[in-house]
Amino acid sequence: MAELTFNLSLLPNLIVGGVLTLTFLYVWRSSGERYLLVWSVASILLIARYAWGIVAPALVVEQPFWLIPALGLARGTFFVWGAALMIDRSVPTAWWVAAGAALIWLFATPGSVHPAWAVAPSFVCFSGALVWAAVTIGGNPQFPVLERHFAAWPMAIYGLIAVAFPWSTTALATLSPAFYLISAVCQVAFLLGILLLYFRSADDQLGARHRRLSEALQRALSGYMEICPQCQSVLEPTGEWRPLEAHVSSRSGARFSHGICPRCLERHYDTLMV
């Protein structure tokens, strides 16, 4: 019985794909940010790509040349989609045109063409998708400067490396391990950058919301209020008496709920206490 041979050199990349998927899904569940869900799908496709690369040498069936390029086009689509969601835009029409052309070229290329040239347009599209996403994130002034560049540069480097992949098994075979290592490092750095960007943006939004609420409360509670000592109603400028909660809510957007403090519970409802 022939010994099964697996390409275990791709195992670190497979593990990175799993870390990306789990992290994106976890943060998406707590935040609801759709771009994280979209990028988790891209990470699942990354797992499929490297899982196939690991088990393919052990398979006795002929390996379809189009599988990895097609996975790359699919991943590129989700990368572009996620970056577009971050800035509230739709996927550019140019991407659909380029990806469609690369897909047609992939399956319509004559058999006499070198395999590297048959799959090259697909990897060029994938590279372009990553670079476009990097420029979209890194060039957006709405995001914090340090965090957006931390997320964008690894993505751009990973995209540029992807262009050379079709030749990594032929003319650049000696550099193939280095390509895989750099791509894994870039993806980890990209994940860290996206997490920093997300948490910094969330913190800035929370701070801005707190400032707006504080300013609204200051406006609502500034000056003197004429308040009834019995029912705690407030005299409005219109001459109408309104409950204190309604007065504050109408000026600040704050909402109230009611409970009973322990002292009042003991004072007024002591007969109901066991």
Short description:
The protein has 274 residues and is an all-alpha fold. The chain is built from nine helices and two strands; from the N terminus they run H-H-H-H-H-H-H-E-E-H-H.
Supply the key terms:
single chain, 274 residues, mainly alpha, Rhopdopsin 7-helix transmembrane proteins, 2 domains, two-stranded antiparallel ribbon, 2 strands, 2% strand, elongated
- Name the poorly predicted regions: none
**Global mean pLDDT:** 84
Distance between the termini: 78 Å
> Do you know the CATH architecture of the largest domain?
Up-down Bundle
Q: What structural class is derived from the secondary structure elements?
A: mainly alpha
> What is the domain tally?
2
Widest sheet: strand ordering = 1-2
The gross shape turns out to be elongated
Count all strands and give the number: 2
The CATH class of the largest domain is identified as: Mainly Alpha
Q: Report the sheet-strand fraction.
A: under 5%
Number of distinct helices: 9
